Please model this.
Amino acid sequence: MAKRAAILGSGHYLPSRVVTNDDLAAMFETSDEWIVQRTGIKERRFIEHDGIGASDLALPAAKMALEQAGREVRDVDAIIFATLSPDVYFPGAGCYLGHKLGLGGVPALDVRNQCSGFLYSLSVADAWIRAGVYRNVLIAGAEVHSTGIELTDRGRDVAVLFGDGAGCVLVGEASGESEGIKVVELHADGVGAEELWVEAPASRRIPRLTEAMLDEGRHYPQMNGRQVFRWATEKMPEVAKSVLGKAGLGIEDVDLFIPHQANMRINQMVAARLGIAEDKVVHNIQRYGNTTAATIPIGISESWREGKLGAGSRVLFSAFGAGFTWAGAVVEF
Model:
């Protein structure tokens, strides 16, 4: 009988430092009303002090996921770490997390697909489990955005969006008859690569980083908000319908919808286009901002602990982000 992969446990971790919209308004020209109206974000979390990296945030989330799955650290035989904000430029954050868990010799793969990174990672873990390559794959989605955004008037349109946080899941072999990862579908189109990007430092430039680049803020994220909104509200429902079709399910079969958390308005529009009732849609952006690769696993972990998700729950996922990349998945818990 062919192996099937399932999400066996989940965990999440958020820094303790809460940064409200009013806190940002004290740093640059903005307001709580302006941010909430455009994004739905009320507050976000920032790391408390210098020296905290994405792998540090992922560590307690990983331990929580393992505990829920009933597994020990030593049971993990592969790590996939999704992030756009690794601890350092290289090596990968997965290597740091493995070391902090005491998993010397266990392979670690970093996935750089930004907001779609968790679903890309889920696809890899699913394939590994089904092929019998590994038995327990730890997926981490973690970001430290607060050290990489421009907290000034020039950078405010992007700076208000992002927060720090981590979410983890353990993927292993399914045991229940219907439990498992049903479908994961991945897409990318580089036509939108420079609509949402960080231009510098860049290996294609000599030198990679100059004083002029720093002065012009080219080392901070830049976004064409209109284009991102247009693509996201088209591609997220499109891929969601596709994965449901491949799973042989209809909208009425969905118990919970956990979309990537980029913008409350995007998620509400996507849910409306799919015909999913608001009470089945998970939102955490109002509390945490956009935590990129961490948004979906945080949503899984919180929903599981709040009783919104449990054995037999059919959950739909959809994400869109820089690249452009987008993805969808259907999982039964």
